[in-house]
């Protein structure tokens, strides 16, 4: 008997787990087709481009998975100037991005006011939506940046397995925020909120991932980023990424990440789902397009100046991505047309929610 497809609002963890475990080609083909059909019906054939600017690779945190972690001395550290950031934003607009994403390590040398100024400059110079991905900042910072004009915030919760998260993402010395509280706070402030997870972390199990999917739904996320974990040799999770003492039933990070992506499309039909860079790095030449045909509707071209991009070394292979974003976009657009998709126009906002003051500033492109 074929597994039923999960439905929004009524998906049991057992059903999600059964889908995550399934290897039967027929069932998987049906899942891919269903995710693609729901994507087409709910968010259309447009692929929205979000121009990613990696504004600094300094980070205070000790995350066991990430190459930007503070103790990684092998990495030259940088912080972009306002002028450089504006130049990158201009490039993003030039290549067709309706959104600019500012991302950095958890870098408190960026003051609240400096980031506010960057937000105001971008919003007043370019016709784009602005997304922030700056880690766990104080509720006051988040509020000030919303007031300055930021529209969206990305903060992946990485895994819903608390013990695993505490181990790989030790609390900051500076302050301790629960990521889930921060996500709720971002919603209250009226941000369009994105989160997501890595797939294939040491000790992560398929049941954890089923729980992750339930949380995406519970938080009614506007955006969800899902990518395979890629071990970084200069981190504690190191070269193999798999600790022999940790049993896991999650053996194929990329394949499982694609299943999680397709299931997320079924649970959150309107969400914006990027086909992540990690998917492409783990499966070069294919991963990004596979994501787009299995539920994703967003791509995030990297518009960081090449010299800095090389130092934004979260995981191996990421910085080796094509140097000139114009080339990437040209190649991508040709591929998109070949699969019946079109570059998105406008900001590509989340669908406004039916009620509540927090939706007041959302717009639709
Ligand atoms: N492999 C894959 N993704 C990673 N990230 C961080 N380190 C890795 C890694 N080694 C992801 C995290 C983070 C995002 C910016 O990059 O999910 O939230």
Give a topology summary.
Elements (H helix, E strand, L loop, with lengths): L12 H9 L3 H19 L2 E11 L25 H13 L4 E6 L7 H14 L3 E5 L5 H10 L3 E3 L7 H7 L10 H10 L3 E8 L6 H13 L4 E6 L24 H15 L9 H6 L4 H7 L4 E2 L6 H4 L15 H14 L3 E2 L22
Parallel strand pairs: 1-2, 1-7, 1-8, 2-3, 3-4, 4-5, 5-6
Description of the molecule:
The chain is α/β, with parallel strands linked by helices and 365 residues long. The protein has 13 helices and eight strands. The protein has helices at 13-21, 25-43, 82-94, 112-125, 139-148, 162-168, 179-188, 206-218, 253-267, 277-282, 287-293, 306-309, 325-338; strands at residues 46-56, 99-104, 129-133, 152-154, 192-199, 223-228, 298-299, 342-343. Strands 1, 2, 3, 4, 5, 6, 7 and 8 form an eight-stranded parallel β-sheet that branches. Helix 1 (13-21) packs across helix 8, helix 2 (25-43) packs across helix 9 (253-267) and helix 8 (206-218) runs parallel beside helix 9. The longest helix is centred in the first third of the chain and has 19 residues, at 25-43. The termini are far apart. The site of 5'-deoxyadenosine has 12 residues, from loops. 5'-deoxyadenosine (5AD) is lined by residues 65-66, 156, 158, 198, 227, 229-230, 232, 278, 314-315.
């Amino acid at each position: 008997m074929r597994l039923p497809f999960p439905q929004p609002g009524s998906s049991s963890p057992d059903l999600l787990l059964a889908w995550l475990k399934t290897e039967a080609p027929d069932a998987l083909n049906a899942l891919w087709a269903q995710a693609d059909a729901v994507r087409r019906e709910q968010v259309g054939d447009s692929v929205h481009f979000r121009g990613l600017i990696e504004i600094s690779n300094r980070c205070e945190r000790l995350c066991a998975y990430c190459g930007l972690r503070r103790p990684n001395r092998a990495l030259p550290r940088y912080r972009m100037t306002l002028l450089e950031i504006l130049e990158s934003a201009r490039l993003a607009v030039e290549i067709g991005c309706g959104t600019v994403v500012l991302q950095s390590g958890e870098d408190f040398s960026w003051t609240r006011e400096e980031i506010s100024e960057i937000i105001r400059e971008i919003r007043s110079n370019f016709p784009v939506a602005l997304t922030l991905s700056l880690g766990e900042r104080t509720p006051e910072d988040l509020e000030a940046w919303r007031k300055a004009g930021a529209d969206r915030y990305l903060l992946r919760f990485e895994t819903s397995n608390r013990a695993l998260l505490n181990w790989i993402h030790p609390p900051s010395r500076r302050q301790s925020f629960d990521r889930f509280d921060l996500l709720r706070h971002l919603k209250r402030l009226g941000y369009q909120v994105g989160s997501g997870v890595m797939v294939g972390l040491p000790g992560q199990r398929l049941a954890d991932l089923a729980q992750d999917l339930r949380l995406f739904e519970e938080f009614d996320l506007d955006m969800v980023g899902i990518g395979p974990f890629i071990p970084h040799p200069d981190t504690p999770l190191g070269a193999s990424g798999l600790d022999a003492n940790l049993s896991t039933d999650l053996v194929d990070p990329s394949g499982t990440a694609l299943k999680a992506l397709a299931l997320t499309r079924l649970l959150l039909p309107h969400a914006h789902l990027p086909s992540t860079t990690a998917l492409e790095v783990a499966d070069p030449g294919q991963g990004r397009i596979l994501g787009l045909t299995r539920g994703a509707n967003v791509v995030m071209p990297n518009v960081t100046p090449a010299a800095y991009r090389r130092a934004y070394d979260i995981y191996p292979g990421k910085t080796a991505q094509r140097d000139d974003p114009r080339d990437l976009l040209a190649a991508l657009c040709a591929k998109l047309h070949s699969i019946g998709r079109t570059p998105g126009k406008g900001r590509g906002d989340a669908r406004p929610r039916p009620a509540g003051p927090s939706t007041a500033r959302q717009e639709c492109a």
